[in-house]
Write a structure and sequence with these properties.
The complex is a heterodimer of chains A (362) and B (590). By secondary structure, chain A is α/β, with parallel strands linked by helices. Chain A is 41% helix and 10% strand. The longest helix of chain A is centred in the last third of the chain and has 21 residues. The termini of chain A are far apart. Chain B has 590 residues and is α+β, with helices and mostly antiparallel strands. Chain B has one domain: Cytochrome-c3 Hydrogenase, chain B (Orthogonal Bundle), CATH 1.10.645.10. In chain B, the strands form 6 sheets. Chain B has a 3-stranded antiparallel beta sheet with strand order 1-2-3. The chains are: A alpha/beta (362), B alpha+beta (590).
């Protein structure tokens, strides 16, 4: 790699002014909720950066996470792969196949040993010696362990890689496991979601590339900048929740008025993600805005947390992480409590099943 | 000397696919074996769950053709419960499915398939002025065609290549003699590769407006979850809880509807001005691919895009049927409920059947268990005389079927659909190739482009109908009558089908006491990528590869061209599987 091959140099060559570059850095700083003074630091870091090598391994996945990556409006996939990283191995996007593809992976692992970033999507089957998923005749576990050795850090993209996801849902037929269960000696960032929000994937990468260190993570390994709050706390329908105004079906008056979807099973109160603030697909909306409750897809084991249409059984004030916020809300909490009780009764009648706080908060 | 060429992983597809091909002394493929090497067991995971939740699980079969399994799933449950959905919900589903086609096919062409035909490195040698002239000749109406534009793209790529880090373009078969495009055509296609990336991000918003996000938009059994927050009787005054329309309500407000319209226009513009002209221009250099890569010669569609509901097949835009041995004069009817028509075989798959491995089973009676008999990883070769894939082999009346764009275009053509006949006629004329050239790798890729246009053109009608309904005061999007499981029969079974971008897709569900008792999906890539059956009949991929001559077995670009022309989706293809014995017992507890 040549010395002049820095990001700023490349951008200048492409006719992008320093001013636009700084604007981009400011946008990044704001996206990651960093103090305004951070923008010059980002600019300085990016201007120096050579493109770090990224190896992306796909295991038991549906490619939804890669598709999501391509939908990122800022930074875009193009700017990511042309200007920010060197995406040296990625099944869905790379030109080479077979032997030539494997060579790209092997070269990157050797040339950038200790420095490359390893991205993983999909869970890893561990049952029966891993025969449930192989690439080039090798098991996913074998490939993961090999690539993890020389990785500077690992990013588990999507709920399958982060928490086991759908393949791990009961009864977990293939013994699927998340990355963090199998690799213990490397820093791991979990970018959960099914799939994760496009700009969250690229935003976390930009953070790492800018500062050369992991962003602050929550207890589940997720970047706090994006997973620090619940969807419920940031939801534009929250005022209706506080007023006790709920949609009862998918196209009643309440639904058309944009009332709270709590009684239709929305898992927003227990789900930590940035959907309500960052939104999806360039701000076009997010699930609750389009009328369907949150599935809770960025939380571990959400597939086994009861029906998507069963209202949360307990008022949100009882659920540990956000207890403080609800207690402050006083009167609102009282309304919520009675609504929750009604919802619980109704749901239990409807589904004949018992749902506990544990089901939705683990 | 004969040899076995192994391509694993096949990249630029969804999922994990391996091809092993035997070649003769001349490097010609005599036998090919297609192996799916990943399995999750989603069907077993679905057992015992609420059928209304199934769409979300099933949708995760695939995130590329995101939505198709969600749609097939809600339709299966609705078929089982005889659950009608409102007209608006039907129109919105049509728009979402159509948007998936346009988005998916364009991305397949530029981001997954193009690099088999387009040499990125050669683009560096192009003259931007000549490229501009070429682009304006190929598509006079597309505005991004100035010499400066192509010079910028070239500079970007040049800087990238000279930096020495080729990233996703590393180790491609650049310079291979099979690449026939002049440098200018390569540069034009490369520019459109980048344009398409930008375009797809914007048009994906149609799913976000109706379904909240993309990938994996939301659905609901009984309709669509997006309430329409616009009503002509309301003026939208005030911002209180009675406020309708505008940002405070749902994303399907007047702004959202207008955005949907804009997106449809944006889709049509790109298809008309870029995708169709590029396909024809590139195909002109690869006419010899109109003579190979056919496959089994049998084609099947289930039909989709109802004007009046799934119960009225006569209102489908894409008709259903089977074409045998290229005979377009006879269309055989398909019945998904008939236990003698669609059956799955496991003769060369890593599963067991209790009645013996040579039997075929209809999905309602689907019964399988994992039975891996392949080599212990790491392995060099699979034993393709025995079991070699996680895919099953679906057959219609015992015959292998190709599904997908080529099947659909042939079906529309055979049924005399005027716009299709016109488009096919124009394509054959422009390329100066005969009708049989459709039965090929080139024909399959061209069919994908043509059907994208047919479907994109149909979208505005559905949009107009939706607006007309709203104007007339009909804002229903959901039918609540059968939402409550206590209204369901004790036992119900149904089949939900659709035409996914990759081909005919169906889910079969058996509901008992409000829970899923059995769930089976037979998906397009299983039809196309499945292994040989008990009769030794090849699956479509395997048949299509026969006779391909490999210029250099170390750079098997010929295999990639034909396999990519099917647009493999392997996570879909091995969605499934039933439990092994041990797990079955656990599930039954529920």
């Amino acid at each position: 790699m040549k010395d002049h091959d820095t990001l700023e140099h490349r951008l200048t060559q492409q006719g992008i002014s320093r001013r636009s570059f700084l604007k981009f850095c400011t946008a990044m700083a704001s996206l990651m909720a960093l103090p305004p003074g951070t923008a010059p630091a980002i600019a300085a870091a990016l201007a120096q950066a050579k493109r770090p090598s990224v190896i992306w391994l796909s295991f038991q996945e549906c490619t939804g996470c890669t598709e999501s990556l391509t939908r990122s409006h800022s930074p875009t996939l193009e700017s990511l792969i042309f200007d920010m990283i060197s995406l040296d191995y990625h099944h869905t996007l790379q030109a080479a196949s077979g032997f030539a593809a494997e060579k790209s992976r092997e070269d990157a692992m050797k040339d950038f040993y200790g420095k490359y970033l390893l991205l993983v999507d999909g869970s890893i089957p561990t049952k029966d010696n891993g025969i449930y998923s192989t690439i080039a005749g090798r098991t996913n576990l074998d490939l993961l362990q090999e690539a993890a050795k020389g990785a500077a850090a690992i990013v588990a993209v999507g709920s399958c890689a982060a928490f086991g996801g759908l393949p791990m849902a009961k009864p977990n037929p293939t013994g699927a496991a998340p990355v963090s269960d199998l690799i213990k000696d490397k820093p791991i960032i979990n970018i959960s979601g099914c799939p994760p929000i496009p700009s969250v994937i690229t935003g976390v990468l930009a953070h790492y590339l800018t500062f050369g260190e992991l962003p602050a993570l929550d207890e589940l390994g997720r970047p706090k900048a994006f997973y620090g709050e619940t969807i419920h706390d940031r939801c534009y329908r929250r005022p209706f929740y506080d007023q006790g105004k709920f949609a009862k079906t998918f196209d009643d008056e309440g639904a058309r008025n944009g009332w709270c979807l709590y009684e239709l099973g929305c898992k927003g109160p227990t789900t930590h993600n940035a959907c309500a603030t960052t939104k999806w697909n360039g701000g076009a909306g997010f699930p609750i805005e389009a009328g369907h409750g949150c599935l809770g897809c960025s939380e571990p084991n959400f597939w086994d947390a009861g029906s998507f249409y069963t209202p949360l059984a307990a008022p949100t004030s009882n659920i540990g992480a956000i207890a403080g916020a609800a207690a402050l809300a006083g009167a609102a909490a009282a309304v919520a409590l009675s609504a929750a009780d009604r919802a619980k009764k109704k749901s239990l009648q409807q589904t004949h099943e018992k749902l506990t706080v544990k089901d939705i908060s683990n | 000397m004969t040899q076995t060429v192994v391509v694993d992983p096949i990249t630029r597809i969804e999922g994990h696919l391996r091809i092993e091909a035997e070649t003769d002394a001349e490097g010609r493929i005599t036998q090919a074996s297609s192996a799916g090497t990943m399995v999750r067991g989603i069907e077993i995971i679905l057992r015992g769950r609420d059928p209304r939740d199934a769409w979300a699980f099933a949708q995760r079969i695939c995130g590329v053709c995101t939505l198709v399994h969600g749609i097939a799933s809600v339709r299966a449950v609705e078929d089982a419960l005889k659950y009608e959905i409102p007209a608006n919900a039907q129109l919105i589903r049509n728009l979402m499915i159509a948007a998936q086609y346009v988005h998916d096919h364009v991305m397949h062409f530029y981001h997954l398939h193009a690099l088999d035909w387009v040499d990125v490195v050669s683009a560096l040698k192009a003259d931007p002025k000549a490229t501009s002239q070429l682009a304006q000749m190929v598509s006079p109406s597309y505005p991004r065609s100035s010499p400066g534009y192509f010079a910028d793209v070239q500079k970007k790529v040049k800087t990238f290549v000279e930096g020495g880090q080729l990233g996703i373009f590393a180790n491609g078969y650049w310079g291979h003699p099979a690449y026939k495009l002049p440098p200018e055509a390569n540069l034009m296609a490369l520019a459109h590769y980048l344009d398409a990336l930008t375009w797809q991000r914007d048009v994906a918003k149609l799913h976000t407006i109706f379904g909240g996000k993309n990938p994996h938009p939301n659905f609901v059994v009984g309709g669509v979850p997006c309430a329409i927050s616009v009503h002509p009787e309301h003026k939208g005054h005030g911002k209180g809880p009675h406020y309708r329309g505008g940002e405070a309500a749902t994303s399907l407000n007047m702004v959202g509807l207008q955005n949907v319209k804009n997106i449809i226009e944006q889709m049509r513009t790109f298809v008309d001005q870029v995708y169709v002209p590029d396909t024809l221009a590139i195909a002109g250099f690869y006419k010899d691919w109109g003579k190979q890569g056919e496959g089994v010669g049998n084609f099947m569609t289930y039909g989709d895009f109802p004007e009046k509901g799934m119960s009225d097949p006569s209102s489908y835009l894409i008709p259903s049927g089977v074409i045998l041995n290229r005979d377009l004069s006879t269309i055989h009817p398909v019945d998904l409920h008939d236990e003698n028509q669609i059956q799955e075989y496991v003769s060369h798959s890593w599963y067991k059947y209790s009645g013996g491995k040579d039997k075929g089973l209809h999905p309602y009676a689907g019964e399988t268990e994992f039975n891996y008999t392949g080599p212990k990883p790491p392995y060099e070769h699979l034993d393709t005389a025995k079991d070699y894939s996680w895919l099953k082999s679906p057959r219609w009346k015992g015959k292998a079927m190709e599904v997908g764009p080529l099947a659909r275009v042939l079906m529309l053509y055979a049924k005399g659909h005027e716009p299709t006949k016109e488009l096919v006629g124009m394509t054959l004329k422009k390329l100066d190739i005969p009708v049989p050239a459709l039965f090929s790798t080139l024909g399959r890729t061209a069919a994908r482009t043509l059907e994208t246009k047919i479907i994109a053109d149909a979208m505005m009608t559905w949009y107009d109908n939706l607006i007309a309904n709203i104007k007339a005061g009909d804002v229903r999007t959901f039918n609540e009558t059968k939402w409550d499981p206590s209204s369901w029969p004790a036992v119900a079974k149904g089949a939900g089908f659709m035409e996914a971008p990759r081909g005919a897709l169906a889910h079969w569900v058996v509901i008992k006491d409000g829970k899923i008792d059995n769930y089976q999906a037979v998906v397009p890539s299983t039809w196309n990528a499945g292994p040989r059956d008990s009769q030794g009949q090849d699956g479509p991929y395997e048949a299509a590869l026969k006779g391909h001559k490999l210029h250099d077995p170390k750079q098997p670009i010929e295999i990639l061209r034909t396999i990519h022309s099917f647009d493999p989706c392997i996570a879909c293809a091995v969605h499934v599987t039933n439990p092994d014995g041990e797990e079955l017992v656990k599930v039954k507890i529920k």
